[in-house]
């Protein structure tokens, strides 16, 4: 079985980015909006992103139209039952994901590969509610999905070698670089990246340097495209906090627990770029350090 038809459940930033990547590589894609509301809005988001590439001369209008033509947007979860591969990209809540996997396992074709794009939750826990477990795995993309090359292919406890091989081939076919990783909390990238961002926040709390200074140091000194605070704001501070908590709950080492400043910003609804304020204030052009963080956060 080669993978031709891909079902994506969840049309947030990651779900839509992955849907766009798959359709750009020639796959038929069914994108399912997992929460109430019009699914067509998701199509507008993708069309807008592709439209910008056409405007900048990076893509032909005909290519954009062909990509959009391969994408179907719906609110009906059952539309994915005939897919060769399903990639779940819904809310990062284990019980919600398990309930979805239980349903998918029952309604999808027996040879449909069922995967999760979770950042830090257990693939094996999602697999545990399925009858046919050998076809369940993780397929973890990075934001922005159309740009970032890596996909972590997660080996759950009962994932078969055949499933992993098919997923690896699929990733190569959509122009990504897959790595196979065992199912440990945070896999490779988030397990390294989350403590890195947490350490930067603790460094700020200790007064080692200002936000812009620490970011500048990591860009100029370690050739990172973004500093740790820019990156945290880009990912979303609620997401960073949730990833931190998931890793902490697994290893129970305080080093992985969310620092106070992160928790406070999330409590206040300052979630980074998506809310206009986080470690930076994005109402200024270019963004400036959030002035509220110039004094200690209590
Ligand atoms: N969709 C499609 N293309 C995009 C894009 C998006 N959302 N954002 C940027 N691009 C493209 C641009 O079109 C441009 O393409 P071009 O070179 O062909 O013109 C290229 O990427 C560079 O974009 P820009 O010039 O606008 O901006 P930058 O050069 O500053 O790059 C960036 C932006 C790619 C986001 C870069 O800053 C970067 O790589 N940052 C680090 C991102 C990162 O680490 N992501 C991983 C986060 S962890 C994660 O996702 C795990 C999850 O589980 C939380």
CATH class of the largest domain: Alpha Beta
Ligands bound, unique: 3-hydroxybutanoyl-coenzyme A
Given helix and strand content, the structural type is alpha/beta
Mean pLDDT across the residues is 96
Give the strand content.
5-15%
What is the chain-wise order of helices and strands? EHEHHEEHEHEEHEHHHHHEE
How far from one another are the termini?
57 Å
Shape: globular
Number of domains: 2
Instruction: Show unreliable segments.
Output: none
Query: What percentage of residues falls in helices of 4 or more residues?
Result: 40-55%
What is the number of helical segments per DSSP (H or I, 4+ residues)?
11
Going by CATH, the homologous superfamily of the largest domain would be NAD(P)-binding Rossmann-like Domain
The number of strands is 10
Largest sheet: spatial strand order: 3-2-1-4-5-6-7-8
How many strands, what sense, and barrel or not for the largest sheet?
Answer: 8 strands, mixed
CATH architecture of the largest domain: 3-Layer(aba) Sandwich
Give short descriptive properties of this protein.
298 residues, alpha/beta, Rossmann fold, N-(1-d-carboxylethyl)-l-norvaline Dehydrogenase, domain 2, 2 domains, eight-stranded mixed beta sheet, 11 helices, 14% strand, binds 3-hydroxybutanoyl-coenzyme A
């Amino acid at each position: 079985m080669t993978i031709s038809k891909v079902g994506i459940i969840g049309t947030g930033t990651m779900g839509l980015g992955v849907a766009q990547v798959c359709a750009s590589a020639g796959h038929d894609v069914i994108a399912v909006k997992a929460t109430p509301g019009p699914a067509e809005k998701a199509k507008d988001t993708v069309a807008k992103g592709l439209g910008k590439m056409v405007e900048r001369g990076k893509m032909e209008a005909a290519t954009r139209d062909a990509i959009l033509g391969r994408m179907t947007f719906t609110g009906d979860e059952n539309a994915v039952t005939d897919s060769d591969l399903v990639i779940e990209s819904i809310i990062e809540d284990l019980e919600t994901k398990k309930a979805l996997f239980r349903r998918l396992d029952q309604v999808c074709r027996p040879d449909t590969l069922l995967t999760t794009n979770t950042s830090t939750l257990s693939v094996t826990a999602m697999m545990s509610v399925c009858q046919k477990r050998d076809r369940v795995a993780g397929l973890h993309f990075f934001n922005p999905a159309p740009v970032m090359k890596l996909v972590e292919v997660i080996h759950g406890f009962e994932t078969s070698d055949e499933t992993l091989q098919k997923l690896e081939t699929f990733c190569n076919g959509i122009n990504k670089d897959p790595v196979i990783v065992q199912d440990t909390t945070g896999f490779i990238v988030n397990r390294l990246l989350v403590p890195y961002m947490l350490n930067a926040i603790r460094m700020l709390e200790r007064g080692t340097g200002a936000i812009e200074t620490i970011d500048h140091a990591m860009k100029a000194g370690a050739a990172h495209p973004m500093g740790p605070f820019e990156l945290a704001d880009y990912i979303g501070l609620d997401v960073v906090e949730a990833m931190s908590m998931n890793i902490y709950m697994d290893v129970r080492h305080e080093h992985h627990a969310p620092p106070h400043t992160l928790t406070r910003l999330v409590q206040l609804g300052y979630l980074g770029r998506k809310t206009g304020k986080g470690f930076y204030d994005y109402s200024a052009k270019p963004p400036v350090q959030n002035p509220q963080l110039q004094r200690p956060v209590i």
